[in-house]
Amino acid sequence: MRMAAGRQFVEASTPAQTANQRGRRRLLRAAVALAAAGAGTAHGYRTAALSVGFIADFEPFVMEQTGILVDLMREALRRMGRELHKLDFPRSRLNQDPLASFPGLHMFVGTPPVHQPIYHYAPIYAFDNVAASLTDRKLDIRRLEDLAGKSIVAFNQASFFLKVPFRTFHDRILRNSSSYLEVDRMESVVAMLLNRRAQVILLDRTFLRYYARKLGHPDLAGITVHELFPEKNIIYAVSRHRDLIVGVRRSLRDMEKNGWVASMLKTYL
What does the buried/exposed string (b/e) look like for 167-205 if buried means 16 or more CB atoms within 10 Å of the residue's CB? Predict the structure, then answer.
């Protein structure tokens, strides 16, 4: 998801400043769109097009007007007789409380750290984290302790999101190790495995399959997956309107049963 270019700045900007500027522009654009969407009725709820917030630039889950989460929500709303009006938010805003900040927002899709009783939640996808290595390395990895002594690249903040017991293992073994690295871009994590710059990578299975395919390894050819993380991180659709969430749940169940979800995922994975 990208914003239209704003006014040009003559002075040079650092990458961090540029990212902050893009985030502010995204937020301003979202606020203007929400004000328009909410005009006329409380929260704009009776409009046919529902405003749904997504984390910006989250390939393959959110990309421009498509992506796994966008496709799921668009089809779920279509089956409810609604249209998706997609809005992009910086990650930091969706980690807070966008429904309170933007009354015109009907739903957002994300991983809220706390479930609030004033909102309703529908699980729509799950981050299924795994370890992966190149098959020809023949690494025997069956438990966390088998990661000790290996060069590891993980997604950013893996030590937080993978939770206990990995967090405990990280603090005890990996935190001060020069062989452990966390990287922000998921494509870079997979590339470092394929380029033999890491023996093991840690990331979500969907990211692994998507970027392995993109980098020339469809169906995880030459890659071994090690199941070390049984707990999944759930992605939710969140709304203040119970009937919307009930409708999304019902649509998603039907989409699973009739094979729509499996068919959609094949286009990405």
Answer: eebbeeebeeeeebbbbeebeebbbbbbeeebbbbbbbb
Please count the other Cβ atoms lying within 10 Å of the Cβ belonging to residue 236. Answer: 21
Task: Report the candidate in 101, 231, 108, 227 with the shortest Cα–Cα distance to residue 163.
Answer: 231
**How high is the pLDDT of residue 114?**
87
**CB burial class (10 A; 0-12, 13-18, 19+) of residue 49?**
middle
For residues 89 and 54, the answer to whether their CB atoms sit within 8 Å is: yes
What is the per-residue pLDDT for 18?
46
Query: What DSSP string describes 67-92?
Result: SHHHHHHHHHHHHTT-EEEEEEE-HH
Strands (E), the chain: 49-55, 83-89, 107-110, 120-127, 129-134, 152-155, 180-183, 200-204, 223-226, 233-239
- Enumerate residues 6+ apart whose C-beta is below 8 A from 191: 211, 215
- 67-121 pLDDT tens trace: 999 999 999 999 999 999 999 887 765 567 888 888 889 999 998 888 999 999 9
Cis peptide before 98 (omega within 30 of 0): no
Predicted local distance difference test score (pLDDT) of residue 56: 85
Q: Are 175 and 127 in contact (CB under 8 A)?
A: no
